[in-house]
Amino acid sequence: MSTVDQLGLKGAALPLQSPIQRFFGSTPVSVAIYLIIIGVICWGSYTGAQNMGYNWQWYRVPQYLYSFTDDGFQLGELLIGLGATLQLSLTAFALATALGLLVALLRLSGLVIGSAVAVAFLEFIRNIPLLVLIYLFYYVLGPIFKFDRYTASILTLAVFHSALISEILRAGISAVAQGQWEAAKSIGMSTGQTYRYIILPQSVRFMLPPMTGEVVHLVKSSAIVSVIAVAELTTFGRNIISDTYMSFEIWFTVAIVYMVVTLILSVGVSYLERRYAVDQ
Amino acid sequence: MNTSDPMIHVANLDKFYGTFHALKDVNLDVQQGEKVVICGPSGSGKSTLIRCFNGLEWHNSGTLVIDGIEVHENSKKIRDLRQEVGMVFQQFNLFPHLTVLENLTIGPMKVRKISQAEAEATARNYLERVHIPEQADKYPAQLSGGQQQRVAIARSLCMETRIMLFDEPTSALDPEMINEVLDVMVGLADTGMTMVVVTHEMGFARKVADTMMFMEEGQIVEISPPDKFFTNPSSERCRMFLDQILEH
Lengths: 280, 248
What we know:
The complex is a heterodimer of chains A (about 280) and B (about 250). Chain A has about 280 residues and is mainly α. Chain A has a two-stranded antiparallel ribbon with strand order 1-2. Chain A contains twelve helices and two strands. In chain A, helix 5 (about 75-110) runs antiparallel to helix 6 (about 110-125), helix 5 (about 75-110) packs across helix 8 and helix 11 (about 235-245) runs antiparallel to helix 12. In chain A, strand 1 (about 65-70) and strand 2 (about 70-75) form a beta hairpin. Chain A has two domains: about 25-50; about 75-275, MetI-like (MetI-like fold, Orthogonal Bundle), CATH 1.10.3720. Chain B has about 250 residues and is of the alpha/beta class. In chain B, strands 6-7-8-3-9-10 form a six-stranded mixed β-sheet, with helices on both faces. Chain B has a four-stranded antiparallel β-sheet with strand order 2-1-4-5, with no helix packed on it. In chain B, a hairpin with a 2-residue loop joins strand 9 and strand 10 (about 220-225). In chain B, helix 3 packs across helix 4 (about 115-130) and helix 3 (about 100-110) runs parallel beside helix 5. The termini of chain B are far apart. The mean pLDDT of chain B is about 90. At the A-B interface, helix 9 and helix 10 of A face helix 2, strand 6, helix 3 and helix 5 of B.
């Protein structure tokens, strides 16, 4: 007879966790620990600022988000900057997806020259820091091809992210079973028709989660275009600080605005994912 | 095309995968309306042979003419050919993101450019013939294996094919679903369709086959009418194979 039988424990759940594990795993304790950590961080920054003699002026921040004047409701500089950031990101994302799809299809084409071009592009883009890429586009390619800083920033972001997106698309396309290709071919579909009607619709659900990550990544990395003074959220934040010296308040606010946007994106897409999962 | 020309004409066909010789000097003629059943151990080249018939695989040398169209890798007519030749796969390969009806209409609509109304009428007609008209609006995953395979057969028929190829159509099915698929195939055979079937369902073979074929190591070892094939095969190897699969 085994120990389990002797103790009359047969059929009962085995105690997998020690009391200490159970204590730290319980919800109230987790929440408490979480709040303590946040509190320590806030208190640390606050006292740190106090020791520096920093003069907190939170009351001056809202006017940079919105204001009410005689003309009614007005967007503040930060929210105008956010609009610019979203416009920039959206345009760059659309371009990046188109370019990424092209690179992915080249790589999957089975043509030696096609995949050689695609791999060369990927390795070139992936191994250059984004900051250097933006300088390349603005200071080198810009004057040569006569485009302005806004175009340069969109192109930089599009090219940089197209490399990552093409890998996501390629993985999604490859994840569709080979039999789907054969079935489509055997009813006489061309390669283009097969992609459009059979393969791409099925690969969406494989691509959705990593693509969300990529959009969030793009919105965040769009901040880097402030180095060439393109008008967007981070640039506006910097301008406000150089006028007002409220670096703590403004950077915190800018960070939170980015966070709100990317969190909304993540939640929206996880809703989409669930819908696609049900349909399948 | 002369009416006496065979639907499928295979002469001195060779196929290699790298250094592996998958098909060795295969010669075969299939007449219009003829039913050929191919059997043989796995890896004998049965599937490879019929996959060459609609350009899912390409032969390396020899001649292959299907319904008057010469099949080779650079043929401009390969898509025309695939519309004439239907293929039913072991794993069904239905399009999981489309409903049953959409699975049946997408080929006629996008490839043959037929109107949606006409394509749907044809599709419903064929669903009737494979005995599942009530499943039209379901997704493939909601159907049993046998139902899925019948949808796959209907999908091929919707292209108004002249030749049907079956690559082990019942091998992935639970035993109780095999007959519903075979019944549909027998019904199809009765309509005079030209059929090439890779299967080990010897009951079906006895019922419909005009010609039985046994393949091994990429070669046709035995090719004869079913009565001779089952009772008095000329090759010892074929006799042993039949003994093994007919034992139970």
